[in-house]
C-alpha cells in the first residue's frame, strides 16, 4: 500500500463548492466530507484551493521521436512535456526510425514509457510496412504484443490506396482496433507548401487544397461504413471535412453495407482551432505544419464542429523538430509544431472564452472521448469514488507567456512563442501519484 494523497479544495469540472479528494493505491477513495481520519493517516497533501479538477487528458496524436530522432524528443522528455501539459496518456505515432510497424519497435516504446513512468505511453502501430502505403504491417502481431496496440496509423502519410485502406479497416475491426487516417490525397498535394488560397497565392507557395483532405475523408467514411469498421480521422483542418463528417455520422442506418457496426470519430489540433494562414506572411517556418494552417472561416467551422461533437476530440499532433529543420527557408523546413504544454490553454482561449464549451465540455474533448476512441479503460473516467485517480488540476484564472526554451521538450518549435495564454495546468496525477506540480515534473 502506498501512502494516500489528499487533494484539498478542488472543484471537479469547475462546478459546485470546493471538495477534498482522497486517493489511495491509484484510486479515488473518497470525495469531500466522506474522508475519514483513517483515510488520511500519513497522507501527502496537495493544496489545490481554487483549482478545477478534470480527468487527466489523453492525447491520441503525439510524436515522441524515439527511436531515431532522440535529438528532437525522447520518450522521457516527451513524457515530461505531457505530464506538465496535464496528460495522463499519450499515443506515440509510428513515424519513428525504424518505423513502429512491428512488435519489436512497439514493445520498445511501450517498455520505455513504463520505465519513465510519467504518463501512459501507448504506441500506435503503422498500418503499412515502412509507412509506404503498399503492404499491410503485422497488425495482429502488434495487437497481440505486450504493447497491446489498438490504434493503427501511417500518420505523416495517407493510406491512399483504397484497397489497402479497405483491408486495413477489415483487419483492425477483427482486432478490435481503429485506423487513424492522415487524410491527404497525395496526387493533389505534390509540392504543397501552404493552404491553397489567397495567402499562398500572394506568397508564391504551392497550395495544399482543402479537397485533398475532404475527398479522402469522404472515401474513408464510405469504406468504414461499407465494412462496418472503426475509422478515426486525424487532424481535421477544413470546414468541408467537418461537413463530410456531419453527413457521414448522420446517415440513416442501413444505407451502407455494415453501417450499424461502423464508428467514425475525428480529432482537431489546438493550432487549427486558433491559428490561420495569415500567420504565414513573415515566412517563419515555425508556422509550417501538415495539414497546413487554413483560413479563418475554416478555424471557425472547426470550433463549431468540436462544440457540436461532429469532431469528437482535441489531439495535439505534438511534432518536435530540430532547430536546423526549422531555422531555414520555408520550402526546406519540416512541417510540425509543439503542442503538449500549450494544448489546454489554446482550448480555453478558443472554446471556453468563446462560450463554446464549459469545463465539462473540455473534459469531454480532451479526456473522455479520446479515451473511449482508443479503448483506454483507466482514463477519461468520471471524478468519483472508486474511479482511477488520473487527474489534471487547472488554474482557470492564470495567465502565462509561452517561451519555447522553457518547455520540457528538447525542441523549441512552438508557434505561440511570446504569446500570453489563459489557464495553466498546476498539477497532474497519474495512477494516484503526482507527476507534475507547479511547473515541475515529479518522478
Ligand atoms: N504534422 C506535421 O506537420 N508533422 C508530422 C508528420 C506529418 O503529418 O507530416 C511530423 O511527424 O513531424
From TrEMBL:
Family annotation (SUPFAM superfamilies): Composite domain of metallo-dependent hydrolases, Metallo-dependent hydrolases
Binding positions (substrate): 63-65, 95, 290, 321, 335-336
Domain Dihydroorotase catalytic: 52-238
Annotated catalytic residues: 317
Keywords: Hydrolase, Metal-binding, Pyrimidine biosynthesis, Zinc
Binding site for Zn(2+) 1: 61, 63, 155, 317
Entry note: cofactor: Binds 2 Zn(2+) ions per subunit.
InterPro entries: DHOase, DHOase/Allantoinase_Hydrolase, DHOase_cat, Dihydroorotase_CS, Metal-dep_hydrolase_composite, Metal_Hydrolase
Annotated pathway: Pyrimidine metabolism; UMP biosynthesis via de novo pathway; (S)-dihydroorotate from bicarbonate: step 3/3
Catalytically driven reaction(s): (S)-dihydroorotate + H2O = N-carbamoyl-L-aspartate + H(+)
Known cofactor(s): Zn(2+)
Documented EC number(s): 3.5.2.3
Annotated family: Belongs to the metallo-dependent hydrolases superfamily. DHOase family. Class I DHOase subfamily.
Function: Catalyzes the reversible cyclization of carbamoyl aspartate to dihydroorotate.
Protein name: Dihydroorotase
Amino acid at each position: 500500500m502506498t501512502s494516500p494523497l489528499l487533494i484539498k479544495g478542488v472543484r471537479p469540472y469547475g462546478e459546485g463548492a470546493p471538495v477534498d479528494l482522497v486517493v489511495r493505491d491509484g484510486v479515488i477513495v473518497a470525495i469531500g466530507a466522506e474522508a475519514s481520519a483513517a483515510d488520511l493517516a500519513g497522507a501527502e497533501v496537495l493544496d489545490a484551493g481554487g483549482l478545477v479538477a478534470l480527468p487527466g487528458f489523453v492525447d491520441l496524436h503525439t510524436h515522441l521521436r524515439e527511436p531515431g530522432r532522440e535529438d528532437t524528443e525522447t520518450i522521457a522528455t516527451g513524457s515530461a512535456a505531457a505530464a506538465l501539459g496535464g496528460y495522463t496518456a499519450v499515443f506515440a505515432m509510428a513515424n519513428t526510425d525504424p518505423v513502429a510497424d512491428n512488435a519489436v519497435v512497439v514493445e520498445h516504446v511501450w517498455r520505455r514509457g513504463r520505465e519513465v513512468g510519467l504518463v501512459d505511453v501507448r504506441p500506435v502501430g503503422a498500418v503499412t510496412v515502412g509507412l509506404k502505403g503498399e503492404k499491410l504491417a503485422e497488425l495482429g502481431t502488434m495487437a497481440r504484443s505486450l504493447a497491446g496496440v489498438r490504434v493503427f496509423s501511417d500518420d505523416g502519410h495517407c493510406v491512399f490506396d483504397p484497397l489497402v485502406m479497405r483491408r486495413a479497416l477489415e483487419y483492425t475491426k477483427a482486432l478490435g482496433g481503429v485506423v487513424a487516417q492522415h487524410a491527404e490525397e497525395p496526387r493533389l498535394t505534390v509540392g504543397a507548401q501552404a493552404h491553397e488560397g489567397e495567402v499562398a497565392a500572394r506568397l508564391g507557395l504551392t497550395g495544399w487544397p482543402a479537397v485533398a483532405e475532404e475527398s479522402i475523408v469522404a472515401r474513408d467514411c464510405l469504406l468504414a461504413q461499407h465494412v462496418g469498421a472503426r475509422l478515426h480521422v486525424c487532424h481535421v483542418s477544413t470546414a468541408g471535412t467537418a461537413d463530410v463528417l456531419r453527413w457521414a455520422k448522420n446517415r440513416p442506418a442501413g444505407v451502407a453495407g455494415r453501417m450499424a457496426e461502423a464508428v467514425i470519430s475525428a480529432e482537431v489540433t489546438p493550432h487549427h482551432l486558433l491559428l490561420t494562414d495569415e500567420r504565414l506572411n513573415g515566412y517563419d517556418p515555425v508556422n509550417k505544419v501538415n495539414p497546413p494552417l487554413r483560413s479563418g472561416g475554416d478555424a471557425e467551422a472547426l470550433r463549431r464542429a468540436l462544440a457540436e461533437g461532429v469532431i469528437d476530440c482535441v489531439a495535439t499532433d505534438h511534432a518536435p523538430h530540430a532547430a536546423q529543420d526549422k531555422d531555414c527557408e520555408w520550402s526546406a523546413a519540416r512541417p510540425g509544431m509543439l503542442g503538449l504544454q500549450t494544448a489546454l490553454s489554446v482550448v480555453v482561449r478558443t472554446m471556453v472564452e468563446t462560450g463554446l464549451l464549459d469545463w465539462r465540455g473540455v473534459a469531454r474533448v480532451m479526456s473522455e472521448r479520446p479515451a473511449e476512441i482508443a479503448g483506454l479503460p483507466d482514463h477519461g473516467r468520471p471524478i468519483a469514488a472508486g474511479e482511477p485517480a488520473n487527474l489534471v488540476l487547472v488554474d482557470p484564472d492564470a495567465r502565462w507567456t509561452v517561451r519555447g526554451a522553457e518547455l520540457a521538450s528538447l525542441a523549441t518549435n512552438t508557434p505561440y512563442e511570446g504569446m500570453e495564454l489563459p489557464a495553466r495546468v498546476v498539477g497532474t496525477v497519474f495512477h494516484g501519484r503526482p507527476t507534475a506540480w507547479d511547473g515541475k515534473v515529479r518522478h
